[in-house]
Design a protein that fits this description.
alpha/beta; TIM Barrel; 8-stranded parallel β-barrel
Length: 273
């Protein structure tokens, strides 16, 4: 079954987050997505706040830029949240904006290698494994989380191009696709993720591949129009559609969250959250 969410973008001040989170919770939305942009807001801090304010809402982080974060620290933070709020966290990782990574002295010569090493180690740590590795970028010496999550969250990988899509399948539990991926392009993107999973020899998954798509909604369209667009993404392979409200005439984000939960979600035939 598809999940419907809205996105809290980092160009909004942090103090605007709580009313949006409460509107999403009260209106029956499935998810609220935050993300970490350089010099704006922390994805971990905003996710923790939303999880604490709400009781059932799932929170996605799309995404944490891996050059900024030691993988052991990220594993500790995610494990803490996953234990405090089991089953409600969907973290994503990615390259980050390369210019920003350079601006803070964190840009690496091979972002693909870093993302592969990082995602692999992060998933293993969250699963409670003891990890020793000496990669090009990720180096761990017998690291074990003291408090691994009992309900292990999926680790999603942000991707646009074919190499990163394949990598998401090879090392992640799913993929986060930005608004750059249209509904017409989505089936091929999913195929590339699945091919990456197959090429890596991964099989026997209990859970289906998570395919999260970010979809822009401009202005104030009708609920029927938004529902129809969401349905096209679902038919193309999305398991979660997260709506990004944009435009000078867009409603306040808390109002948009209520609109999505109370008017769009029922048109998709989703059962009450």
């Amino acid at each position: 079954m598809v999940s419907l969410g809205v996105i809290f973008p980092p160009d909004l001040a942090p103090e605007q987050l709580r009313p949006v989170a409460m509107a999403a919770e009260e209106s029956g939305l499935d998810e609220l997505w935050v993300w970490e942009d350089c010099f704006a807001e922390s994805g971990i801090a905003t996710a923790a706040a939303v999880l604490a304010w709400t009781e059932r809402l799932r929170v996605g982080i799309g995404l944490l830029p891996v050059p900024l974060r030691n993988v052991a620290l990220t594993a500790m933070e995610l494990a803490t949240l996953a234990r405090l709020f089991p089953g409600r966290l969907m973290p994503g990782v990615g390259h980050g904006v390369l210019d920003w990574m350079g601006q803070v002295g964190a840009r690496v010569p091979s972002p693909m290698t870093l993302l592969a090493e990082y995602t692999t180690a992060l998933r293993q740590l969250l699963q409670g494994q003891t990890i020793s590795t000496s990669g090009r970028y990720v180096r761990l010496d017998a690291v074990t989380l003291a408090w691994p999550p009992q309900s292990v969250p999926p680790v999603l990988v942000g991707a646009v191009g074919p190499r990163t899509l394949a990598l998401a399948g090879a090392v992640g539990d799913g993929v986060i696709l930005t608004e750059q991926t249209t509904e017409d392009q989505l089936p091929e993107a999913v195929r590339q993720v699945l091919a990456g999973r197959t090429d890596a020899g991964r099989s026997g998954f209990d859970a289906p591949l998570e395919v999260v798509t970010f979809v822009k909604v401009a202005g104030r369209p009708s609920a029927a129009d938004v529902a129809a667009r969401v349905s096209r993404f679902v038919e193309a392979g999305a398991t979660t559609v997260a709506l990004l409200s944009v435009g000078e005439d867009a409603p306040p984000l808390a109002d948009f969250a209520r609109f999505a939960g109370q008017q769009v979600r029922p048109l998709l035939g989703l059962s009450p959250s």
